[in-house]
Amino acid sequence: MKNLDKIKLTPNSTIKEALQIIDAGAVKFALVVKEDNFLLGTVTDGDIRRVILNGKGLEESINNVYFKSPITVTTKSTKEEIINICTSKKIHQIPVVDEQGCVVGIQILDELLKPKKYEN
Predict the structure, then answer these.
(1) 93-97 and 103-108 as β-strands: parallel, antiparallel, unpaired?
(2) Which of 49, 58, 77, 80 is most buried, most CB within 10 Å of its CB?
């Protein structure tokens, strides 16, 4: 799982901050969380592109931009379950949440599909 600190935003973050995080991160989205890491949603460059095309400025909040019902998996989800969800929903990354809905990681489909390397 990836380091979350580099891809977290709050609802008050700006569109520009979201773009910077998505651009700098190795994943194609950012997580929108409360202070306690409770997942509120996700934002992608596509979400941002649509609002900019509709006239929103870079200094505006992402509060009305981010997706508020993201697909997630739990810490108990198996690798196979995560792969099935990602492929059926056509997503490449998925947040992992605990029982309280707090983000504890993300899973990347490409990484899950890589074969394991064994030492000889």
Answers:
(1) antiparallel
(2) 77
